[in-house]
Design goal:
This protein is an alpha+beta fold. It is built from 15 helices and 16 strands. Helices cover 32% and strands 22% of the residues. The strands form 3 sheets. The chain has an 8-stranded mixed sheet, with helices on both faces. Helix 5 packs across helix 7, helix 5 crosses helix 15 and helix 7 packs antiparallel against helix 9. The chain binds adenosine-5'-triphosphate and manganese (II) ion.
Length: 482
Amino acid sequence: MKHSKVIDLLNSTKTLHEVTAKGWVRTFRNNQFIALNDGSTIHNIQCVVDFENTPDETLKRITTGAAICVTGTLAESRGAGQKVEIQVTKLEILGDSDAEKFPMQPKKHSLEFLRENAHLRVRTNAFGAIMRVRSTLAFAVHQYFQEKGFFYVNTPIITGSDAEGAGEMFQVTSLPLDGSAPRNEDGSINYKEDFFGKQTNLTVSGQLEGETFAMALGQIYTFGPTFRAENSNTSRHLAEFWMIEPEVAFNDLADNMDLAEDFIKYVIKYTVDKCGDDLKFLENRLLEEEKSKPQAERSEMTLLEKLSFVLDNNFKRVSYTEAIEILRDSTPNKKKKFRYIINEWGADLQSEHERFLVEKHFKCPVILFDYPAKIKAFYMRLNDNTEPGKETVRAMDILFPGIGEIVGGSQREERYDVLVEKMKALGIDEEELWWYLDTRRFGSAVHSGFGLGFERLVLFVTGMTNIRDVIPFPRTPQNAEF
Ligand code: ATP
Ligand code: MN
């Protein structure tokens, strides 16, 4: 008999028929009640075993973590806590799980312990919920763009363009690393002998390639893995993370902000509607976690309130210049509570500043725009009419409470001459990026896009605080287990 999913059984209005379910035992009480979970939902189904007619040998093997198959009658539950249960007539152990050795005991484990057991942590309620929410968010991303007529583009993962400067890169090579790699006369490595005949890296962003597609297909998006060898061991950075990068021809910076805000709201709304049970569980998890914090550090809103708040309010749009004024006059700046004190226009914003603006000052998502050209990437559109020395670019960063930067984007510099000037000034090799410059030579036009770090979005929606807990197998400095 084909087995049913637990989620369908729990939602079934038809009872008293024979069903089969397969899953993993969460708990087994009184030699009689199995809480069975198959991953389809956060909820377990109660399976009532007829222990008098079940061999002791079998009962002993119903242990936490074991995979089992049960057949029986789906009936209204006689106990409290669940509407339906399976009154088991046949029970088969599919895979034993040694109760002494199975790491996922039915008790509270630390997140650190769970990270070390990332291959099993998804069998817990919290991680099951997080990974279902992650899957739903990913689907919503595609649905949003597809409904709006965007095309999904797969940009290369191995790239030969190292000019982008978005972060430290991982090199890709098939040359030996034991010192026997072929060398040039000056002693440097001869990459002509390498697999691709040149030096290559794992991509830090698909943007530049994405732009070439936007200048043909109009509206495109990428959704793929990106890699940064940044040695920043923070709760917001991974060495391997997933990025969503829409790019749209003829969009200016204001259109870009509208798109980003609408997109974020859509995917959150979609997930709130689809993942109610998982989010409710995660909300309670967060409440529990916060109980151990001093009152002042607890958040004023519950998880679902925070999500509704984002849906119901406009993101506050603030120029970099206004933000600097706010920060300069802020109490933590005056009392020297910031690690980096803001004195001058032109200062790069650190996450402490971003968080102050979002969490203390505006208390809502913030879009900062028009940053100093000096602290932003070469491809961002230079604003017209800016004072010499105070040039700004049409950049925008979206800052979220508890997260900091979730989106980084800009209107792109569409003018060939200005772009080349900029590259020269920064020492970026024009020859290396000949194909990128071609987009400005042949039918150039205003266009804009942004990158959203998928894990930072999952962090926000799940209310988790460490980015290592929202990706199945995190890659961070000194850690690539699994
Ligand atoms: P940050 O200042 O937080 O390091 P960034 O300025 O380097 O971010 P961008 O290069 O603009 O970020 O990348 C676009 C988005 O990708 C960011 O807004 C963020 O959501 C996400 N992101 C960047 N670096 C990482 C990382 N190491 N791990 C996870 N997400 C990241
Ligand atoms: Mn970074």
